[in-house]
Specification:
The protein is an all-beta fold. 0% of the residues lie in helices and 44% in strands.
């Protein structure tokens, strides 16, 4: 933004806009089978509905490089996003148990869910290959071990290429 008032002798420079070709995906996760709306983020910051939107992609969404990660029920699916149109095309998938949250960075996707026996909350970790195939990370799934006595389930996870953060619902008893 240009400072107001502009200092004498200063040449205002506009704030750089997002690169053309960036897309925003919006999904109504609370409604089963809710399709995903795709918007182009224009250089001026406005959004334009992508041609053909909404798309038949439903679930919790996370961005992973040129892919969209979607976790729903017992599956996580990667979708290649067309850089010109924003159309998501299924590229790979993997099994998880009772997905509750998803997070991704440029190389990895994590899904919080239940262990195969349903006894513990775990994080399923996958690397995403160049064509969108999902490969389990060594040691995955990772058991969520914490000090929360009555945490019912993971409610959010975040990832930033260096750290993975898990938010749980519940409380710590005395």
């Amino acid at each position: 933004p240009t400072p107001m008032p502009t200092p004498p002798g200063a040449t205002p420079t506009p704030t750089p806009a997002a690169a053309h070709g960036t897309f925003v995906f919006v999904n109504g996760v609370e409604v089963p089978s809710q399709p995903t709306d795709t918007y182009r983020l224009n250089p001026d910051g406005t959004l334009t509905l992508a041609t053909g939107s909404p798309f038949p992609v439903s679930g919790m969404l996370a961005s992973s490089g040129s892919f969209l990660a979607v976790a729903s029920g017992n599956t996580v699916t990667s979708y290649r996003v067309d850089a010109t149109t924003g159309v998501p095309t299924a590229a790979g998938n993997a099994q998880v148990n009772s997905s509750q949250a998803v997070a991704a960075d440029a190389h990895d996707i994590y899904v919080a869910g239940l262990s195969a026996d349903g006894a513990n909350w775990v994080l399923y970790g996958f690397s995403i290959g160049g064509i969108g195939l999902l490969t389990p990370l060594p040691g995955s799934p990772f058991k969520l071990v914490g000090t929360c006595e009555l945490c019912s389930q993971p409610v959010s996870i975040g990832l930033n290429n260096s750290f993975l953060v898990v938010g749980l619902s519940g409380f710590q008893g005395a």
